Amino acid sequence: MFKAATDKRVATFFAEGLEECEALVVCDLLFRSGIPVDKVSITGNIAVTSSHDVTVVCDRALTDEDFSFDDYDLLFLPGGMPGTKNLRACEQLTDAVTAWTQAGKDIAAVCAAPSILAELGLLEGKKATSNPNFQSVLAEHGATVLNDPVVVDGNIITSKGLGTCVELGLTLTQRILGDKATEQLKDKIVYMR
Predict the structure, then answer these.
(1) What pLDDT is attached to residue 169?
(2) Are the CB atoms for 81 and 89 separated by under 8 Å?
(3) CA triplet 32, 171, 66: central angle to 5 degrees?
(4) What is the SS3 assignment for 158?
(5) For residue 173, how far is the Cα from the chain centroid?
(6) Is beta strand 60-61 parallel, antiparallel or unpaired with respect to 55-57?
């Protein structure tokens, strides 16, 4: 049973061909922390198939009449291919991500998805990370590329890939709920470093 610890909400965007574990690990950690998170399909169908042929049923779709980015406090873009390309091709999402970032609201992206932020010009002069295969895209668009598992620069949080998603989930929990909740989450998941 979900018990909300905050009224802040997170939207995780699901595109065909995403890396499902990147999305679901972060969603799971937020859920365990009591942070409301919606799985949002960018298609008109709430069922989205991952790059590994796993179908995930989302909570809602970007095309829902009542969908509003204003209902959320943080937007999260998981990676995967061709999921990242599909997220990048969704104009409604990229317009919102641009406006959101420029307004100083929190954006998180992992694996290949930070390349979307780079291509939109949102990482210029920022510290960031991504999957090593996409770090050149970040650098070409003016980012200072770090090899840390998770990089926070202002309102932009980037992470390297599936292997760093627990760190990303902990970072987002700390950002939203603080240190005590993060330590409690570490205990819940038997986090060992």
Answers:
(1) 98
(2) no
(3) 65
(4) strand
(5) 12
(6) unpaired
What's the token pair of residue 63?
Answer: 């095309």
pTM: 0.96
- Furthest CA-CA distance within the chain: 45
Instruction: Give the count of beta carbons closer than 10 Å to the beta carbon of residue 103.
Output: 8
Q: How far is CA 114 from CA 25, 130, 150, in A?
A: 17, 6, 11
Name the band, by pLDDT with cuts 50, 70 and 90, for residue 3.
confident
CB proximity list for 65: less than 8 A, separation 6 or greater: none
**41: which strand partners?**
14, 61
Helix %, strand %, coil % of the chain (to 5): 40, 20, 40
Q: 3-class DSSP state for residue 107?
A: strand
Task: Give the span between the Cα atoms of 113 and 117, in whole angstroms.
Answer: 7
> From CA 17, how far away is CA 80, in angstroms rounded?
6
Contacting residues for 157 by C-beta, under 8 A, at least 6 apart: 106, 107, 108, 109, 150, 151, 168, 171, 172, 175
> Which tens digits make up the pLDDT trace of 71-95?
999 999 999 999 999 999 999 999 9
128 within 8 A of 157, measured Cβ to Cβ? no
